Amino acid sequence: MPDGLQAYCRECSAEYYRQRQEAKGKSVRVKVPVPEGHKRCPQCGEVKPHAEWELNPTSSDGYASYCKPCRAERNQQSYFKRKYGLTMEERDEMIAEQKWLCVICLKAPPAHVDHCHETGRVRGVLCFNCNSAIGKLGDDPDALRRAISYLEGNPWKPTLVAPGVYRLPS
What's the pTM value of the predicted model, to 2 decimals? Predict the structure, then answer.
């Protein structure tokens, strides 16, 4: 309007907007009253104090869009999708197929996705110790065979044939 005011009050405009969005098949979030020093998380829908939020200087209110637990969950889901191409549900299905046990030690619960570092292909879900052991052996099957031979009591020592020349055991 020429005087700078709208033709309708704020509540009427909001109701008209909601009706237009519903006609398009979209839904509009109901505005929830939030006390001073609190913020509503769009994921969990809870109103939490500012202490439950991470700081974000680029946002209008200075806090992150999601509360700390929801943000951690979203970051974990994003990480699994980006790193392994898996959703959390697919990872949980793999764990269920393994009967909730690490397939190597058969003792600990699997929690770490094991993958080939060359191809990126996911092999399974292992416990921390087994996953780190494979990683420390460099995903090398020959190194693992030598480790097995060592554990079984077979010495694996190169013999000196000439100065600087060693013969490896077969």
Answer: 0.61
What sign does the dihedral 31-33-39-45 (CA atoms) show? negative
CA angle in degrees (0–180, nearest 5) for 140-162-164: 55
Q: What is the DSSP string of 143-158?
A: HHHHHHHHHTT-----
Q: Residue 142 phi/psi, 5° resolution?
A: -65, -40
pLDDT tens digits along 74-114: 999 999 899 999 999 999 999 999 999 999 999 999 989 99
Measured CA to CA in angstroms, residue 143 lies from 64, 158, 169 at distances of 47, 15, 14
Nearest in space to 156 (alpha carbons), one of 164, 148, 165: 148
The model's pLDDT over 40-51, given as tens digits with 9 standing for 90+, comes to: 999 998 999 999
Alpha-carbon distance 15 to 169, whole Å? 82
Distance in Å from the first CA to the final CA of the chain: 91
